[in-house]
Amino acid sequence: MDSQRKKKRTGFTIGLLFLSGGIEYAVILPTIWAYLQKLNAEPYYLGLALSAFSFAGLITGPFFGYWSDRTHRTKGSIMFANLFQIAGNFMYFVGGSKWMLLSSRLVAGVGTGAGASIFGYLTRSTTSQERSKVFAAVMACRQVGLLIGPACNLFLRLCNFHLGPFVVNKFTSPGLFMCLVWILLQIIVMVMYYDIQPPTHTARSVSAVQWDALEDEQKPLIGHEGRQGAATEGSCYGSTLVGPPQPSLGDECRYVPNGHLADEESAGEDKNPFHQFSSVKEYLREEVVVLLTAQFITLFNQTALETMVTPITQKYLNFGELENSIMYFLCGVEVRVKRGDTVTEQGVC
């Protein structure tokens, strides 16, 4: 299989992973509040259950990113993370207590840390010109998942049967549904995901050209036979005698001011632009701080609204799972359309 086809299959698989990640986050929003009430949980458990998912991804993301940077392989880390998604959703399906529900979201959140590995792969496998488009496409898949997730409850709420010792109803069906989705994705990753390494033929060709040029410079202008001929014709006017090559002088014969050879050698290293690079200074730049702060405020307000809307609609509007699912779906459509208009306006400008 050619590399272009492998790259397309890998990109398609990454899109499915982020799509499923969006569904994973949003599919429980319409029903988790009623689920916790059924388990006699305190109201603050709603915030704990929703934040545990993101908290686990925040903690495990750097570890998955470090794994990817060290090995330059992401397939293993993705499959390992999917195991946590499968286990966490199965725990959510089993339920039984408020602690099991909280633990299930914490375990499932560990799997979201693989996003760091995927972004590392995308950074290595794309050029600077196409990287923004690829990142935008990947995040668009997640946004579509956030839109589809609540709508899945339109049919999941109709489930009411037994699966062995387990009860499948409108509360537990999202866990079973996502467990099956992640099992299917695990198979897709095994078959269609490839760890494509960045092309290195350009660098190799440049090195080969430089090496050939260096060899040409080291070749003598007059070969061995030419030197013999010059020796026999040395009596001719204008002939030049070519003597034996002078031995190369080592570092001990090279003139260095004050004799500081180490200082001279280190001067070349200081010319490296990444020698003085500091990640702390890079992230503390004014424009970076402003962007990160704006992103934090946006996500904080969004998640706070998502957490509070179901208790409020239940208390004041007497909404159930169906009404909440429709509300989340319509709000998601409005947000996506608004973001699409904003991107279009920026493109026109």
TrEMBL record:
GO MF term (any one): transmembrane transporter activity
Annotated Pfam families: MFS_1 (PF07690)
Principal localisation: membrane
SUPFAM superfamilies given in the database record: MFS general substrate transporter
Location of the protein in the cell: Membrane
A single cellular component GO annotation: membrane
Spans through the membrane: 12-33, 45-66, 78-95, 101-122, 134-156, 176-194
Recorded topology in the membrane: Multi-pass membrane protein
Segments forming domain Major facilitator superfamily (MFS) profile: 10-349
Entry-linked InterPro entries: MFS, MFS_dom, MFS_Domain-Containing_Protein, MFS_trans_sf, Tet-R_TetA/multi-R_MdtG-like
Gene3D superfamilies: MFS general substrate transporter like domains
Keywords: Membrane, Transmembrane, Transmembrane helix
Name of the protein: Major facilitator superfamily (MFS) profile domain-containing protein
Native source organism of the sequence: Laticauda laticaudata
